[in-house]
Design a protein that fits this description.
mainly beta, 4-stranded mixed sheet, 1 helix, disordered N terminus
Length: 131
């Protein structure tokens, strides 16, 4: 219920005059495998190459993109439009990969990552002697 206290009243009008919004969505990514090569394709239309970060950390491949836009009017027209867009997605790929194993390409709003499938390291069985 709307309360007519001064703070609530002012906050009510902030929505009319402030065009700021933030988009937080999971990054939709297609994953495929063919002949031992994985391909991840993420649609990042509206983002520039510099807005995108691909990071390999603790066995996870993290893809994120973040962009802020601020547009102001001129002497004759007063307006302020701000927007902030951020998307991200993480994939567990395991500890067997390094950043050199990945090939990343960004073209026409589509980020494509490719990497070869690796067999997990086989753990050797060792006997521990008891004293």
């Amino acid at each position: 219920m709307f309360n007519l206290r001064t703070r609530d009243f002012n906050n009510f009008f902030d929505g009319f005059f402030n065009d700021t919004f933030e988009v937080k969505n999971p990054l939709v990514t297609d994953v495929s495998e063919k002949d031992g090569v994985y391909t991840l394709s993420s649609n990042l239309a509206g983002f520039d190459k510099d807005d995108i970060k691909v990071e390999l950390k603790n066995g996870y491949l993290n893809i994120s993109a973040e962009k802020s836009v601020k547009e102001e009017g001129d002497e004759d027209h007063y307006y302020l439009k701000e927007s902030h867009s951020k998307v991200n997605r993480s994939f567990f790929v395991g500890d067997d990969f390094t950043e050199e194993d990945f090939n990343a390409k960004f073209e026409n709003g589509l980020l494509t990552l490719t990497f070869e499938k690796k067999e997990p390291k086989k753990l050797e069985s060792k006997t521990i002697e008891i004293e």
